Amino acid sequence: MNHLGDNIKRIRKTAGISQQELADMSGVSKAQISRLENGEQNNPQINTIVSIASNLGVSIEEIIYGEKTDSFSYLEKALKELPQDDQESIRKLIKVWILMSQSEKLQTLE
């Protein structure tokens, strides 16, 4: 199962773009796009995914997960994939950030 490659291929074809056109637009070689779509390369560098997504006009999440997601849904999904201790640490950091943000807003009102 090659979700990443399948997603790239589906989105590219839906957009009516050839592999060569995507290669020219994104700066990623046609050979690499072909390898990704055929499942011969499953772990591309993040800048490759960013370039492909950007030039296809979709989010990175849509390339990776195959579905449009809002930023919050993506973050929630990513958080759930982390170890429990890391999840708790991130939740605490978010709470502290929210409290600091609220405190700053109150100070500007004074």
From TrEMBL:
SUPFAM superfamilies to which the protein is assigned, alphabetical: lambda repressor-like DNA-binding domains
HTH cro/C1-type domain: residues covered: 8-63
GO molecular function: DNA binding; DNA-binding transcription factor activity
The keyword Cytoplasm is assigned to this record: no
Keyword terms of this UniProt record: DNA-binding
Superkingdom of this protein's organism: Bacteria
Name recorded for this polypeptide: XRE family transcriptional regulator
InterPro entries to which the protein is assigned, alphabetical: Cro/C1-type_HTH, Lambda_DNA-bd_dom_sf, TransReg_Diox_bact_type
Metal-binding as UniProt keyword: no
CDD domains: HTH_XRE
GO cellular component terms, semicolon-separated: cytosol
